[in-house]
Amino acid sequence: MRKRFIAGAVCRHCQAKDTLALWKESGVEVVECVKCGDQMREADKQVQSAVRKDEQIIGVYTPE
Known about the structure:
- The protein is α+β, with helices and mostly antiparallel strands.
- The chain is built from one helix and four strands, in the order ββββα.
- Strands 1-2-3-4 form a four-stranded antiparallel beta sheet.
- It is elongated, with a radius of gyration of 17 Å.
């Protein structure tokens, strides 16, 4: 498994710059911060976008 670093990228968890490594596991892209260990997978993003796509607004609450 060969890991590549993403130049200029900032970790969403610890805000460290140039610490994100990218590789593929079973066809799924994995990004991990080598400083804090925070991980994000391509499948996670697909699930989140699928959930957001099917959402509907029922009403808007405006407190008076």
